[in-house]
Specification:
binds flavin-adenine dinucleotide, alpha/beta, about 700 residues, seven-stranded mixed sheet, Rossmann fold, single chain
Length: about 700
Amino acid sequence: AQLDTLDLVVLAVLLLGTVAYFTKGTYWAVQKDPYASSFANGSAGAKAGKSRDILEKMDESGKNCVVFYGSQTGTAEDYATRLAKEGSSRFGLKTMTADLEEYDYENLDKFPEDKVAMFVLATYGEGEPTDNAVEFYEFIGGEDVSFSEKGGAEEKPLSSLRYVAFGLGNNTYEHYNLMVRNVTKYLDRLGANRVGEAGEGDDGAGTMEEDFLAWKEPMWTALAESMNLEEREAVYEPTFEVTEKPDMDSSDDTVYLGEPNKNHLEGHSKGPYNAHNPYIAPIAESKELFNDEKRNCLHMEIDISGSNLSYTTGDHVAVWPTNAGREVDRFLNMINLGDKKDTVIVAKGLDATSKVPFPSPTTYDAVARYHIEICAPVSRQFVASLAQFAPNETIKAEMTRLGGDKEAFAKEVAKKHFNIAQFLEYMSEGKPWDKVPFTIFIESLNKIQPRYYSISSSSLVQKNKISITAVVESVEIPGAAHVVKGVTTNYLLALKQKQHGASNPDPHGLNYAITGPRNKYDGIHVPVHVRHSNFKLPSDPSKPIIMIGPGTGVAPFRGFVQERAQMAKDGETVGKSILFFGCRKSTEDFLYQDEWKEYQSALGENFELVTAFSRETAKKVYVQHRLKERAAEINELLEQKAYFYVCGDAANMAREVNEVLAQIICEQRGVSKQKAEEIVKTMRASNAYQEDVW
Ligand code: FAD
């Protein structure tokens, strides 16, 4: 039978893997893949001996399409993987993904004309390349870029390079998607042949997934034409192979039950502790900060003594989460693996270029509990690709419809806040999906990412104890079928309950395995690593500081003020510190209400706390309003070279604070709006304006 266009579209969407789930703060987390390259020794993988020649690598492995990624937290890498899979299943391209930092680019001028390079590039922070893209970016954008063969003299040295590009950005930042914009500019300047438009995804607007889907269809059409590719009926081709090992027992000491790497498995976890190797830290203390029956905010003191981990005030700590037992069970039951959850499995890449995102041998349970984001919102593309494995034709048709219809999906699926297992349960009315290969979940769901917290203590005051201030995510949305329970924060809540004597700590029936693999986290322990940040107090303590930190945005400022109070006690000259804090009600969620008084007594007039309680007056008052009320004083402090800090909500608050500051400067100094904005930009460029937002 002939296929009509609709059929083609349907077939096309059938196989496209993976969820795009946008962790907030995608552009902030520095760590890349927590499992990257080496599980074996818990340190960065041994790269020695690996060829850095991409052309050679493609030749050797018979590839004609390379998808390069510049990724900070793994999202761009996930999109790159999706493109690679789609290219192979729909168009028969021989694809591979490549970490930009693992190759050299001097021979890009010899890129064969019959191949294609794809670039998936995240922009990080203030328009910067991700860590793994720095060298590539500097090379390709360099004034005197020269290639091995044609040198610098050739006018269009990259005329044989065919490429496509997609960027991941956040419109709340000024340099929105600068990476992809600049890289395409440089490549075009060098004569490369771009196929289709460069795409731009916007995490700020929450439309990354739909931006990606909207970009890639015309891109594929253009690429198919440019390369004479024929679209074929997409068939699911696994990237990994999972083999059950009935002869092994999950209690065998070679089986990973959630241990992040070999050191942990062998029970002699040792440093250095980093994004590949967490420290299983004792929680020394934990307490509730809110006075509200419905909401929780945790203060936790994480003990790092003896670990060799260190931090300075303003850094971040990463917490490695565990999925809730309730969701692990739901997931395994829905794919008919509930009875086999402890069966030992070995996972292998079917191709030299595909790496399994967890160590094995392991068990289904360990994979679902520790390694894949099974609680994230389900993605439309993944729904489409699961249709072929539906338990019956009716469900298959429904899956295909929802996967292919953006509006219907938004209304009927996204709005209900389903995770993957809740969605499968809903579609099949609880009947297990026994035809879905487990590999598709490994390939399509994101790897679990550690969650970052702004450290809320001062390293001067407590160098061996890191404190965090975390609001427990429990999101109730009208129309949603489920209350969304944040993975990490509810895990931390369970730990806190245990510390306070609960024999069976179980917030909301989530049933976390808080004692970890083989009870290795028993007592009250949590896996962490530290990430150093640039969010720092002025090196000269006599400089004034202005801090804007509503809600948990106050976290690093507790550390700042704690530090300055200690300095004052030690007899140092400490400049004015003014903190703008906001919350709902002074009686409910006023964080560290009593502590500020202590700091006040140490700092005297040099400390001021300005509060905004949004639900105590008829008209809502936020920190931005308070800032504006203090216009004259703020301007004066800035003229005394005050540092200005903002922490917390990136989407609205931080942007508005930026605007208010420009207004203050404009009014107080009698300069034009444009000039005031320039002054704010200059402050940012010189680090006098710093943000820690998510
Ligand atoms: P997750 O499980 O990651 O869920 C987060 C949100 O995603 C949910 O609230 C919901 O809105 C959405 N979501 C999840 N699942 C679904 C679903 N199935 N359907 C629809 N929506 C869904 N937080 C603090 O409290 N304090 C801090 O000091 C702090 N500092 C930070 C510093 C940095 C640099 C960054 C990047 C983030 C910081 N955060 C901080 C945020 C923190 O990292 C976590 O994002 C936050 O605690 C939520 O984590 P979680 O695992 O509990 O929630």
